[in-house]
Design brief:
alpha+beta; 2 domains; 3 helices; 11 strands
Length: 203
């Protein structure tokens, strides 16, 4: 009787250890998932210009983000592809105007692309920021160096939230030409912010 009880106890202990090991493996699974893809329905890419010092907000309705991390969960590659034609400022007249030659010139440059393979861990005084991506932004046929600070937060075992904010100078990309080039009416600085849900594509 005692022998049977001892055997049962050992079996229970073994099952307990296996359960703990399995739970730990599931918990740390995101660290091993190297490839991430944005989920458009739960993501936002917004921008704001200014007209006579008053903000004018807009968003891009179509974009894709691909992100790669290594086995230590550190970023190694980031690619953002934006359909410029999907820019939406909540006004049909504005939407038509910004697609014209003087602005985005969507007819010739329908896509904007940001790529980065160089990252640094954000300084501790950068609250809410985990990494800074150093890369190139191609917009309206012009390529410029751009830095993108962002946070990387786990939601569950295969979903992560990526968010951040940066400022661009529209004149660096030839956006807003002719009478709009000076920045007197429409400011040159454009605020860009994003909140993207990333899904592991390794599952």
């Amino acid at each position: 009787m005692g022998s049977n009880q001892t055997g049962q106890n050992r079996l229970l202990v073994l099952f307990a250890k296996l359960s703990i090991a399995l739970a730990a493996a599931l918990l740390w699974q995101p660290l091993l998932a190297a490839d991430w893809q944005s989920e458009l329905t739960n993501s936002q890419l917004n921008f704001a210009a200014s007209f006579q010092n008053l903000p004018i907000n807009g968003r891009f309705n179509q974009f894709s983000v691909k992100h790669t991390t290594d086995h230590a969960a550190l970023p190694t590659n980031l690619q953002v592809i934006v359909s410029v034609a999907s820019a939406d400022m909540g006004n049909l007249e504005f939407n038509d105007e910004i697609q014209a030659l003087d602005w985005f010139n969507v007819a010739d440059h329908s896509t904007a692309i940001f790529t980065s393979q160089r990252f640094e861990i954000a300084p501790q005084n950068k609250a809410g920021i985990d990494y800074i991506a150093h890369g190139k932004l191609q917009l309206k046929g012009i390529e410029q160096a751009v830095t993108v600070p962002f946070s990387w937060r786990q939601i569950n075992h295969n979903q992560v939230a990526m968010s951040g904010e940066l400022s661009l100078n529209r004149s660096d990309f030839g956006i807003g030409q002719g009478e709009w080039a000076t920045g007197e009416q429409i400011g040159l600085a454009v605020r860009v912010w994003f909140d993207v849900r990333m899904l592991s594509s390794n599952d």
